[in-house]
Amino acid sequence: MGLGLSIEELKAIKRYYEKLGRNPTDVELQSIAQVWSEHCFHKTFKGIVKLPDGSYVENIFKKYIAKVVEELKPPWCISVFEDNAGIVEFEDGYGIAVKVETHNHPSAIEPFGGAATGVGGVIRDVLGVWAKPIACLDVLCFGPLNTPYEKLPLGVKHSRYLFKGVVAGVGHYGNNVGIPTVCGAIYFDEGYLGNVVVYCGCVGVLPLSCYVKNAKPGDFIVLAGGRTGRDGIHGVTFASAELSEESEKVSRPAVQIPNPIEEEKLIRAIIRVRDEKLGSAITDLGGGGISCAVNETAHRFGCGAVVELSRVPLKDPEMRPWEIWLSESQERMLLIVPGENLERILEIFDEEDVEATPIGRLTEGHFVKVYYHGFLIADLDLDFLFNPPKAVRYAEYSENEVEEIFDAPHDINDVLLRLLSSPNIASKEAVIRTYDHEVKGITALKPLHGFRGGPNDAVVLKPIPSSWKGLVIACGIKPSYGKISPYWMAASCIDEAIRNSVAVGGRRWALLDNFTWGNPERADRMGALLKAAEACYDVAKDFEAPFISGKDSLYNESPLGPVTPTLLITAISIVPDVRKVISVDLKQPGNSLYVLGVTKRELGGSEYLRLLGVNGGKVPRVYVKDAKRLYDKLIAAIDAGCVVACHDVSDGGLAVTLAEMCLASGFGVRVNLSRVLRDDDVNRDDVVLFSESNSRLIVEVKRDRISDFEGIMRGCCFSQVGEVVDDGKLTVMGLKGDVIVKLDVDVLWDVWRSSLKL
C-alpha cells in the first residue's frame, strides 16, 4: 500500500482499531499514513532525540526554532508557524506572507515537473493565507556538472540533465503564471550528485483585515481549481524515504503535473473571494491532497467534517476512492464557505473559468467521515489522527575541524581568476536571464545591477503602489561548512542572510529555516542536525531575528550516500524608501573603500581551499553582538547618505568581493591589504584575500562624507583600505607593500561570465 509507516506506528494503529472492534479501511490507513509522514507531521523535529550520555532533547522544533519568536514576542509578527505561510506586518494595514519549500525528491525523478510543481505549490501556500503572490525565489543545489557518467550508479541522473531540467521548470512556471522570480542562488558540490536540492519560495501581500480564519460547523467545503488525477499519489510518503535505484520506476507517479495557466486563473478567483470576504478559511492542496487539507482544516478549527468523494471533478473517472482522497494533483485549493456566501463564490469561480465544487461540510465533533456514492469508506477520529506515537531518534556527534596545511600560491592573479570561473562564484546570469524578474513592475532592486550586471546581495520589491517602502529578500546558504561544523554552518547561514539584507539597507529581519538533511534514523546525521538547530536558536535570538516559517526535508539519501547537510536561511526585511537602497556597483572614482569587520584565519569550507584541493580548516565563527552592532551602525550610515555602494564578503573572500564590485561598474579599485583589520595570526596575503570570515562587508563612501561615516561607525571594527579608480584595473598591494594582484576588469568580466552555461 506504500504507507511508509514504522513498526511502532503500525502497532499503534493495530491497538486503536482493536479497541474499536473493527479493521481499518484502506482509505483510513492511507489517511493515517499521510498525516503521520515525515513530510506532513515533521515527526523528527517534534520527536525525542536521545544522546550518548543518556539525556534527551524533546521537540527540537519548539526548543530551538519556535522558541526564538516566543521569547522575542515581536508585535509585527502576525502569524508564525500556524498556517500555510508566515505573515509579518508591512505598513498601512498590509502584511507580507512568505513561505519556502523543498521539492527535492520529485526533482530527482523528473527535474522539470518536480521543480515546476515546487514553484506552483509554494505559490499556493502564500495564496492559502489570502495573500496575493508577488514574487518567487529559488535556491538550487547540484552535483558537479562535469561528473563522468560512469561515476553514477543506476537510478542517479546526471547533474547537467537535472540542472537544465530544474532551471527550465522554475522558469516555465514562474514566467507563465506571471510572477517574477527575483532572488536565489545556485550551488555545486559532490554531495548533491545523488540528491538534487530544490528550494522554491514565494512572497505575497495581503490587507491584514482580510486575513480571515474563522471556520465553523455548517460551513461548506469547496474544492476549487484543477481536476483531480492519479498524479502525485503517495507524494508525501515518497518524500519521506530515501532514493534508490527503484525510485524512478516505483515513484514516478508521485511527481505531479504542472499547469501554471490554471494556477493564474485560480489566483485571480481567490483574490476576488478574499476582497469580498466570502470565505471563512482557506488552505492549499499540497502533500496528502484532499485528505490532509480536510483533516488539518477540521482539526485546526475544532470541528469534524463530512465529505462525499463522488462530487470531486476527476481527470480519470476510473480512479478509486483512496486515490481521489490522496491525489496531489496541482492547482487546487480548499475553501471553507458559510452557506450564505456559497452561491456568490461559485459565481466568481465560474466567471474566472475555474471549476469549484462543494464536496462536504464541517460538522460538530472531532470525526471526519468520508463517503463515496453514499457509502461510508472512512470514519477518522481526529484526536487519534493528530496524536501519533513520538518518533525516537539517536544522536551522535564529533567535531571534524583539523588544521589545514598548504603553501602560499606563487601567483595570486591566477588564483583569483580561477576562483571567479569556479562554479559557485561564476556568474549565474545564464540562469537568471531565463526568469522574468520584472513582471508586475515592482522589482526596485534587481538580482543583477550596474553597467555590466554585477550580483546584488539582495533584491528589493515595492509591494504597495501608494508607498515607497520596500521589502528586502535575501538568502544565506553555506553547505561546505556543514561538512566540518554543522553548528557554525547554521550560524553562518543566518549571518549571511542578515548581512545580505543589511548590504542594501534592510532592517527588522524575519527568518525562514529550510533544512535538507540525510536519514535522521542514522545517529551521525541526527547529531549534526541537532547541532545546526541549536545554532539557529543561539544566533537568531541574539540577532533579534525571529523565525516565522520553515520546512524540513529529511531522508535525502541515495546509493551515493547522504546529501551535503544543507540549511537555507531566507531573510525578509524592510527599507524605508526604495529610492535610497544601496547596490553593489561602484559609483565614483576618488571615493573611499572600507572593510567592515575583522578578517580571521577562517578558511575551513572556503572556496579557496576547495580550489586548492585542501581539506580541513576552521569554519568561520559568528560573533553576534559585534555583528549586530556593526550592522545597526551601517544602516545608520546608509540612512545618513554616506554609503553609495556595498557588498558582503562571502564566497572567495575580500578578493572576489572587490572583483564583483568592479564587474558591476567597470571602475577599478586600488587596495592595500596592510590596512585590513585582522587577527595577529593572519600574516599571509592569500589568507587576508580569501578568508571567508563572517560579518564583513566592503562599502564605498563618498569622499566628502568620510568624517561623517567614521563618526557613525565609531565603536565598531572598520578600516579604510583603498579607493575607487578610473583605470579599469583591480590592483591589490600585499602586506609587504608589493603589488600582488593587478588585473583588467575586462579580463575579470570575461572569466566570470564564461564558465557557467545552460
From TrEMBL:
Class of the enzyme per the UniProt entry, highest EC level: ligase
Catalytic center residues: 39, 103
Nucleotidyltransferase keyword on record: no
Keyword Protein biosynthesis carried by entry: no
Pathway entry: Purine metabolism; IMP biosynthesis via de novo pathway; 5-amino-1-(5-phospho-D-ribosyl)imidazole from N(2)-formyl-N(1)-(5-phospho-D-ribosyl)glycinamide: step 1/2
Reaction catalysed by this enzyme: N(2)-formyl-N(1)-(5-phospho-beta-D-ribosyl)glycinamide + L-glutamine + ATP + H2O = 2-formamido-N(1)-(5-O-phospho-beta-D-ribosyl)acetamidine + L-glutamate + ADP + phosphate + H(+)
Residues binding Mg(2+) 2, per UniProt: 125, 284
Domain (Phosphoribosylformylglycinamidine synthase linker) ranges: 1-43
Residues that hold Mg(2+) 1 according to the record: 101
Keywords from the named record: ATP-binding, Cytoplasm, Ligase, Magnesium, Metal-binding, Nucleotide-binding, Purine biosynthesis
Compartment(s): Cytoplasm
GO molecular function terms attached to this record: ATP binding; magnesium ion binding; phosphoribosylformylglycinamidine synthase activity
Stated name of the protein: Phosphoribosylformylglycinamidine synthase subunit PurL
Species of provenance: Thermoproteota archaeon
Recorded name of the encoding gene: purL
